[in-house]
Predict the 3D structure of the following.
Amino acid sequence: MNKKIAIDLLDDGGNALYVSERKIYPRSVSGTFQTWRNVAVVVLLGMFYVFPWLRWDGRQAVLFDLPARKFYVFGLNFWPQDFFLLAVLMIIAGLSLFFFTAIAGRLWCGYACPQTVWTEVFLWMERWTEGDRNARMKLDAAPWSAHKLLRKGGKHLLWLVFALWTGFTFVGFFTPITDLAARVPFFGSAPGWGGWETFWVLFYALATWGNAGFLREQVCKYMCPYARFQSAMFDRNTLIIAYDPMRGEPRGPRKRGLSSVLERARGLLDPATAYDYVFRAARQGNAVSLGAAGTTAVTDVGLVAQPLPKFEPEQLGDCIDCTICVQVCPTGIDIRNGLQYECIACGACIDACDSVMDKLGYPKGLIRYSTQNAIDGKPTRVARPRVLLYGVLLLALCAAWAWGVTHRSPLIAEVLRDRNALYREAADARIENTYTLKLVNKDVEPRSFRIRVEAPSGIELRGGPQTVDADAEQVLNLPLVLSAPHDVRGKQAITFRVERADGAADASVASTFFGPM
């Protein structure tokens, strides 16, 4: 009972409490999925950088005016009273993530996540200045020289300019961007940027530079919670990027002329044998020398694997163990080891493998978008109860949100009764109550409004029904006086009616009129 259990918290040198991350050098790749990723980058970043400069009805098309507590999105404007619409929109976004993840895996991560999009652009700039994978690795390993300083300095200069542009654009969504550009420090007019504007430009630029330039895949692996709880949304019918071990194993190099297993007598392996080869190859294949990362049971350090035997050419599968699928992976994993939480479903390994299969004259699809059931030769169900439930809820929420946006009242009317006195007697012996009507024209156009009162016992609006003009998005505070005969007694229920002159909108506000008891 007194025996101590040794716990090793430090490395062999006793210098660290964590394992440092090796640098990943993704290799450039071309193909169908890379084309779609490039399109997504151009479209999404185009929206981000262009939208603040667009004009709509004489104002910035997309502007989140926090001091005025108003958001503008093209022809729509949102007031604080519309906050519930923002809440519904966030629910829709979350439910959309569940819905598309259940059907097609991590589409968001691979094609639309800001971390993925900006990292892709930073990789483009890195390749332009330092070259592709092998050139970058050679440059990093070389001693410092004028050539290396020029390459590295050029890269970081591009990164810095792009990051500052990103920070400036981000702030331009909250401060009119033309005004922000006119006050650029050292170049624009006085007084320059305010303290908070400067802080957020620099903060967002630093975050972009750090996340997309240095942290990269570590954000996806350690900082983003989505990778951790995706397993709760996946099942064997979810579309994932998967390697077909029954076709690909046993892997290994071969001479040209050997046909695909789909055309040979060997055919496909049984799943048990194929996955056993995957398990053993994960510990002695070429990917091991690359230091392929990834969290999967196949690479569990507590398991022992027997070495693979030497196979005859006719026994080999279609995988030639070229490791290009590992080299192009932005998170540095070996997809052949199975589904791993580090996989962002970008499809780079599919494009890389398909190009190799083309060169060998083999059918494409050794690595492909598929379901685990399909890989194992079992039927796949797309219309599953969970997917149907997500879909129905998503459609209902989208319809409700669209209805709420299109049926919002373009005016706000609130009535505050004068609480200093219940009533007062006028010189003509009539009883008067005083009110303040707060009228908000939410429209971006000037409007006219008619004001009247519905009340019993001869209570009427002094001066009769009124018509007032309100400028675009103007807030009016209008004093109103209700008058009644001297014989009106007690508490009387009344209703103020506010109607837009064109009849397109109206509002009713209930209040009370007090007379002598």
Remarks:
- The chain has a mean pLDDT of 90.
- The longest strand covers residues 431-441.
- The chain has 17 helices and 16 strands.
- The longest helix spans residues 146-172.
